[in-house]
Design a protein that fits this description.
The protein has 175 residues and is an alpha+beta fold. It has one domain. It has two helices and nine strands, in the order αβββαββββββ. The protein has a nine-stranded antiparallel β-sheet with strand order 4-3-2-1-9-8-7-6-5. The chain starts with a helix and ends in an 18-residue tail after the last strand.
């Protein structure tokens, strides 16, 4: 009889202990679920705010040769990007046969909004854009790939780059 009482007491203790552990696990899971829901809501709010900001104006950007194009005699290009209804258009690229294109918007863990798109011409030339919106500052990269294999790479920002410094002509010697 004493053995039966001891066994019942031990089993009761284990049942009560495991119930407490399961309740603690449920509370922990509920807290984690709530934290994820708050993070997702914040991400959605940042995405909506970023979309509204992108759509609010025409973005003047300056494309500077970079990557494989750095050092080549390519000009700095002023362009205007317009975002509307989930699409983006480059005024400079319209004249080269590129139309508007849809873009994807991602929110990074640090809250930076990143947009990306690819544009194509009828001749199969491609342009890849990746931009970052930090507050009201837009920066990024643009890569052009022609169907003939030529590649041009640019970085862009809203800041107009300073003109390149002119090399001074050597002083002439007096005779």
């Amino acid at each position: 009889m004493k053995k039966a009482i001891v066994i019942i007491a031990v089993l009761s203790f284990l049942f009560i202990g495991s119930s407490s552990v399961m309740a603690a696990d449920r509370r922990t899971k509920a807290k984690e679920d709530a934290a994820r829901a708050v993070q997702e809501l914040a991400r959605k709010q940042i995405a909506q705010k970023s979309t509204d900001l992108l759509n609010s104006k025409d973005w003047v950007v300056y494309l500077v040769p970079s990557g494989v194009s750095a050092g080549k005699r390519l000009p700095v290009i002023e362009d205007i990007l317009t975002f509307k209804d989930g699409r983006v258009v480059s005024r400079n690229l319209i004249s080269r046969g590129y139309g508007d294109s849809n873009y994807t918007l991602s929110i990074m863990p640090d809250g930076i909004a990143v947009w990306e798109t690819m544009q194509r011409t009828a001749q199969e030339d491609l342009v890849f854009w990746r931009g970052e919106l930090r507050g009201e500052d837009l920066t990024g990269v643009m890569n052009m790939h022609t169907s003939k294999g030529a590649i041009e790479e640019y970085s862009f920002s809203m800041n107009k780059p300073a003109p390149p410094a002119q090399a001074e002509a050597p002083a002439r010697k007096k005779r």
